[in-house]
Amino acid sequence: MFNIFGVRHLSPAAAWHLNRYLDELKPRCVLVEGPADAVEILRSVADKRVKPPVALMAYTTEFPIETVLYPFAEYSPEYQAIVWAVRHKVDLRFIDLPSDIILKLKQERTGEDISEERKEYYRFHNGLYDRLSASVDEDDYDSYWERNFEHNLNHGAYCEGVSLQSGEMRRLVVDEEYRAAPSDFACNLIREAHMRREIQRVIGSGVKPEQIVAVVGAYHVSGLHNSLPAMTDDELAALPRVATRMTLMPYSYHRLSSRTGYGAGNRAPYYYEMMWQCMQEGTLDRLPAIYLSHVGGALRAAGSNASSASVIEAVRLANSLSSLHGGSLPVLRDLHDAAVTCLGYGDLPSVAGAINMADIGAAIGSLPEGLSQTPVQDDVSRELKRLKLANYKSTVAQELALDLRENRQVKSGEAAFIDLNRSTFFHRLKLLGIHFSVLLPAAQAAATWSEKWSLQWTPEIEIEVVESNLKGETLEIAAAFELKERLDACTNIRDAAALIRTACECRLIESFTGALGVLQQLGVDSGSFRETAGAARELSVLIRYGDIRRFDLAPLVPLLQQLFLRGALLAVDAASCDDKAANEIATAINTMDLISQEQYDVVDSSIWMEELRKLAMRDDRNTRLSGVAFSILLERNTVSDDDCAREVSRRLSPGIPAELGAGWFAGLSGRNRYALLSRISLWRELDRYIQSLDQEEFYRSAVFLRRTFGSFEPNHKNSIAELLGDFWNTGAEHTAETLTSELTETETQKLDELNDFEFDF
Fold first, then answer.
1. Which residue did the predictor score with more confidence, 746 or 417?
2. In terms of pLDDT, which residue wins out, 557 or 176?
3. N or C end of the chain: smaller count of CB under 10 Å?
4. Residue 249 · residue 459 · CB < 8 Å
């Protein structure tokens, strides 16, 4: 009979006992639960240059991408089995279903509705572990497992205990699985039939059964020992498949933790690494002191006072708590309680971050360059090294400021433009949806040569890099492919202009030329003021770069001139809209005005000012937008005080509906408020307007004006109150103090009446 060693994934004790089991048995063949087609990549896992945690990832080669991960920590029993087999030069194989079948079955189950019966089954299944824990007075199954298995270094007791427990658990759930979760159970039956097939193939090749060790999850032990037949060739051929590939990728303890959603993970991967090291050194009894010292160190690093005496007391308390359960060593739950009591003085939030660091840690694995990677993974690795970014490949977020200008103080061209090349690299990642680098808002809007990025590497990013391999074999080719797909799907000029900017930032010359053609083609039929303004803004930003990005931007100048002229001529007609659409049109007006100031030597600003004056004087357009236009004229000092007073008087008069007058004033006051405050005549006319209203008109106006003034800064409100004090002869300071003081009960009541005011439209 062949040998089966049941394990719990990511169990240091399982790995420790497995190593001794293999040393004693000295098998000729080691079989591991994993995708059977991982032949080429399997031995790479044991490469001495590989630093766990790492993960074997299988993925489909067509969209939509489906993936399956097989992560390994150093203390994973499967990893230790692989390392042992490679070190002893024995036959090593994975025996689970091949990845093309596993992923096809996963595709078919993705989006599958979970019935109430299946939900009830899952509750029943998980409840079995809770009942087992409660039967021995443990708070949870993790504590039960740790106290009875992780701390038990009696080899015979571990193997017997795991087999007995897994067999009993499986017996209890078999009937429930058939009834409530048939697809779940059927998948396990198929996998086990394939594993039995692979075992029989090894035996058929001449290896004696007693020279074989199969390392599988404890749940599958009885499934491999039963009398069910192995999968036949015809049955294997009948299973559905999908084209797949595999790669080895770095992983992290954060992603490995079950707290981040990995179902087969453990709650504290770094804690279990400490446990593994103690087992290797024969010092398991020192684990509580090592763990709590890490908690204390994390607290001190964060600025908290965590003395050595407090750590010693915490260790004593943890041991005492363990003794209450009859354990030889504290479990993680005991250590948490001791840390909260002795280091946090009963306050969990004050030590939660330190506990989290000691539980999970920040470890991320690494691979030597070129080992079991896709071409794009290799390309990204080379770029990280070339651009001196390897130290940023960390799970801890770090900021990096870039100066895109040439550094003339260095000798080589590569060094002179390293920040520019980094920017290109980051923008290509951004285009491909690889979230290693996130562009932060610029502190100086005018500093086109400056960028700041936040950099953080996670295992999810590794998956995103692998997915981009379907678009090209290098980062540049993949980015060009992605940009072409977006250009092919582009339907408006604003998006086309944004893609021109993207092509420039990614330094994709052919894509840049193609994007120009798409913009020109779409521009022939475009009549949208909002889209035209947005497209012009994208080109304006690019032109401001000048030669910073070492890109020929000359073709953009005539395009910007055409777009700006078209936008200026569309503005007045676009302002014939409702209040909902006015928000976007107002943004477009402000965008056009910004372009006219930034690119005054390129675009025809005189036409823009002429169209603004038309809009400001029109009564048949959205009044808020007329107010925005008039506000710009005020800022440019093209309107005299007398003209301002007349327009305010015309717009804010008793004969004008309150919502129209207040809407115009809202547009007027939405821009440079310091410019408004300097126009005394404006506020005098507003004061006269308010005083001329009857009670109902006042209520109607107050509702709209209150909304407008609600967005003013406190210092602006104070300045307005002082102006009113001068008009009313009540004293500027006294009036400001009165109007900005706390509301009285009567004033609050009046305000409530205003809130309840009903409009009779």
1. 417
2. 557
3. C
4. yes
pLDDT at 757: 55
Whether 278 contacts 284, CB under 8 Å: yes
The token duo for 675 is 């410019």
Least Cα distance to 456 among 391, 525, 517 occurs for 391
How many CB atoms within 10 Å of residue 615?
Answer: 23
Using left for φ > 0, alpha for ψ between -120 and 50, and beta otherwise, residue 760 falls in beta
In Å, how far are 56, 364, 414, 605 from 435, measured between CA atoms? 21, 17, 25, 40
Phi, psi (degrees; rounded to nearest 5) at 131: -65, -40
Q: Tokens 């970014």 sit at which residue?
A: 389
558 preceded by a cis bond (ω within 30 of 0): no
Measured CA to CA, the distance from residue 103 to residue 489 in angstroms comes to 30
Q: Is the pLDDT of residue 704 over 60?
A: yes
Of all residues in the chain, the percent with pLDDT exceeding 70 is 92
Give the span between the Cα atoms of 523 and 534, in whole angstroms. Answer: 12
**159 contacts 17 by C-beta, under 8 angstroms:** yes
- What's the pLDDT score for residue 91? 96
In whole angstroms, what is the distance from residue 561 CA to residue 574 CA?
20
User: Cα separation of 383 and 381, whole Å?
Assistant: 5
The residues facing 242 across adjacent strands are none
User: In this structure, are residues 292 and 338 in contact, taking their beta carbons and an 8 Å threshold?
Assistant: yes
Per the structure block, which two tokens stand in for 627? 């107010």
The string of DSSP letters for 335-403 reads HHHHHHHHTSTT-HHHHHHHHHHHHT---B-B--TTSS--HHHHHHHHHHHHTT-GGG-SSS-EEEEEE
| Average pLDDT of the residues in 654-678 | 75
Hey, what are 749's tokens? 């009541």
d(CA 187, CA 482): 37
Among candidates 82, 102, 91, which has minimal Cα distance to 35? 102
* Residue 278: count of CB within 10 angstroms of its CB: 18
pLDDT digits (tens, 9 = 90+) for 187-212: 888 999 999 999 999 999 999 999 99
List the end-to-end C-alpha distance of the chain, in Å, as a whole number.
Answer: 89
Q: Are 479 and 432 in contact (CB under 8 A)?
A: yes
- Comparing C-alpha atoms, which of 244, 197, 233, 238 is closest to residue 94? 197
pLDDT of residue 537: 94
Q: Is 453 helix (H, G, I), strand (E, B) or coil?
A: strand
pLDDT digits (tens, 9 = 90+) for 523-553: 888 889 999 999 999 999 989 887 788 888 8
What Å distances lie between residue 365 and 48, 72, 74, 251, 436, CA to CA?
13, 10, 10, 5, 16
Report DSSP letters for 500-517, one per residue. Answer: HHHHHHTT-HHHHHHHHH
Residue 401: how many other CB atoms lie within 10 Å: 11
Higher pLDDT, residue 111 or 67: 67
pTM exceeds 0.90 for this model: no
3-state secondary structure 562-622: HHHHHHHHHHHHHCCCCHHHHHHHHHHHHHHHHHHHHCCCCCCHHHHHHHHHHHHHCCCCC
Among the listed residues 197, 257, 203, 198, the one whose alpha carbon sits nearest the alpha carbon of residue 230: 197
Task: Find residue 398's DSSP bridge partners.
Answer: 455
CB atoms within 10 A of CB 266: 26
pLDDT band at 761 (very low <50, low <70, confident <90, very high): very low
* Average pLDDT of the chain to the nearest whole number: 87
Residue 594 contacts residue 636 (beta carbons within 8 Å): no
What pLDDT score was predicted for residue 550?
83
Strands of the 437-439 sheet, one edge to the other:
398-403, 450-455, 437-439
